[in-house]
Amino acid sequence: MADPSGFLRHARDDAPKRPADERAGDWREVYRDLPAADRDTRVREQATRCMDCGVPFCHSGSAGCPLGNLIPEWNDLVRRGDWAVASERLHATNNFPEFTGRLCPAPCEAACVLAISPGSGGAVAIKRVENAIADVSWERGHVQPVTAGVSTGRAVAVVGSGPAGLAAAQQLTRAGHEVTVFERDDRLGGLLRYGIPEFKLEKKVLDRRLAQLRAEGTRFVTGCEVGGTGPGALSVERLRAEFDAVVLAVGALRGRDTADVPGRELRGVHLAMDHLVPANRQCEGDGPSPVDARGKHVVVIGGGDTGADCYGTATRQGAASVTQLDQYPRPPRERDDERSPWPVWPWVLRTYPAHEEAGERKFAVAVERFVGDAEGNLTSVQLRAVRVRKDPATGLREVVPVDEDVQVLPADMVLLAIGFEGVERMPLLDGLGVPLTKRGTLSCGHDWQTSAPGVFVCGDAHRGASLVVWAVAEGRSVAHAVDAFLTGASDLPAPVRPNALPLAVG
Ligand SMILES: Cc1cc2nc3c(=O)[nH]c(=O)nc-3n(C[C@H](O)[C@H](O)[C@H](O)COP(=O)(O)OP(=O)(O)OC[C@H]3O[C@@H](n4cnc5c(N)ncnc54)[C@H](O)[C@@H]3O)c2cc1C
Ligand code: SF4
């Protein structure tokens, strides 16, 4: 049983980061590598803060962890120092806790009972405990290949090697199916590889997990666009002829643009992914990025994860200045109970490690024009203070200036991190006869099957741009559905339904 008064003896303590000026000078992960014994002691104290609250909201899919991670159970195991069983219980619900432990925004912590009252010292540092269990599991050899005892003889193709595709593939391989993951990029991992920067997830962490999947029997083919016609492509006809089921885990990688803003065509205005992908490739040893921020005044448009990653990448590339712009007003530091009461995901100011390193953020502003010189090079941006409101007539979101003042910011590089518009239009979808919804996603029935028989969907391709934790949860659930489709019934877990949504986010 948990320690009901641990939170009274131990203050919340987040994972310590390396000094900001040190980490801004390299690409390594921002968190300090503590000596193992010190880390274990500190994390055990944090796990001890998990009380016996009775009804743990942290692991409920609607408000807390979409994977249904057994958080109070492994907190108690860590408190008692039983890391081996904690690893087993964590991996029972999460294929890749070293990814979520590093990357997840932790809705579980927002839903922790200790988050109700600030006087309690704040939520249990669940994500820190999860990450430590994952790291200890690898260090002590608790993570080993899990091979299926029998083969069903049924072949499954997984298209896309992001976290959704990898989770589906691992579950289906372990259930005895012959699984092949096809990836059009030259390396595996989807956004874990080429979107999320090294300073948030070192790629060796991804590579060691991929080695486990290979050892279990999952096959991987890179440089293969499914449905394409270029070198290495796999046609839809062969896909359908050679596989009994297909999982589409193709992501939602169509970047949103600002075509209507004057000056968009100027040299120096880029989509965020045109900056992040080559920066990640450079870390992999593929040579210098053509979109490098060294010595430049960089303006990042968009306040989310992608914007923060551009911000931290530009800082590491040696930008002269970095400014991030957000159309929305600066959120409060504390939860506003009127707007987003516990346990829902709160509307609060989120400060990423990148923001502590350099640069500044501006809120409630929007770019009305990109300005260039006679050669077509970007030189500055013109900003207006704005308000975001609903158009009373149409109900649609609109951004309106609040006054006539125009601010000018010097800029040699603008990075557009204003979201994604859904699945890329690709020949594969036409070949399979799977249409895009109005939201640009792929819809499915309650069994994760699209309108094409035997073709399933999961991850961002189904939800729209989302989170790693949702991608893994959907990958696990689609594996259950495919297994049932192929064999008539499945014992695999299905943590989420296709229509699952987190409780309203403010
Ligand atoms: C810059 C950035 C930072 C992010 N940071 C975080 C974070 O900190 N925390 C978090 O939780 N989430 C974060 N996210 C979101 C998270 O990365 C995604 O939600 C997650 O990766 C979605 O997984 P997925 O498997 O559905 O798709 P993806 O990871 O997008 O993978 C899809 C894969 O399919 C491949 N593919 C597409 N079409 C084909 C085809 N026809 N043939 C073969 N292969 C194909 C693509 O090449 C790609 O590799 C971030 C996203 C971005 C863009
Ligand atoms: S995956 Fe995310 S929501 Fe689930 S326990 Fe880990 S940090 Fe919390």
Bound molecules: flavin-adenine dinucleotide, iron/sulfur cluster
* Shape by Cα distribution: globular
Number of strands: 14
Radius of gyration: 23 Å
Largest sheet: 5 strands, parallel
According to CATH, the fold-level topology of the largest domain is FAD/NAD(P)-binding domain
Helical content (DSSP H or I, runs of 4+): 25-40%
First-to-last CA distance: 35 Å
Percentage beta strand: 5-15%
| Nearest-integer average pLDDT | 96
So what's the CATH class of the largest domain?
A: Alpha Beta
Explain how this protein is built.
The chain folds into three domains: 6-139, Alpha-helical ferredoxin (Fumarate Reductase Iron-sulfur Protein, Chain B, domain 2, Orthogonal Bundle); 155-253 and 421-487, 3-Layer(bba) Sandwich (FAD/NAD(P)-binding domain); 269-416, FAD/NAD(P)-binding domain, CATH 3.50.50.60. 32% of the residues lie in helices and 14% in strands. It has helices spanning 6-9, 20-23, 36-48, 71-79, 83-91, 97-103, 107-110, 126-139, 163-174, 191-194, 203-216, 236-242, 272-283, 305-317, 353-357, 427-432, 460-463, 468-487; strands at residues 155-159, 178-182, 219-221, 245-248, 269-271, 297-301, 321-326, 360-363, 365-372, 378-390, 397-401, 407-410, 413-416, 455-457. The strands form three sheets. Strands 3-2-1-4-14 form a five-stranded parallel β-sheet, sandwiched between helices. The protein has a five-stranded parallel β-sheet with strand order 5-13-6-7-8. Strands 9, 10, 11 and 12 form a four-stranded antiparallel β-sheet that branches. Helix 15 links the parallel strand 7 (321-326) and strand 8 (360-363). It is globular, with a radius of gyration of 23 Å. Iron/sulfur cluster (SF4) is lined by residues 65, 67, 69, 71, 100, 104, 106-108, 126-127, 130, 469. Iron/sulfur cluster is lined by residues 65, 67, 69, 71, 100, 104, 106-108, 126-127, 130, 469.
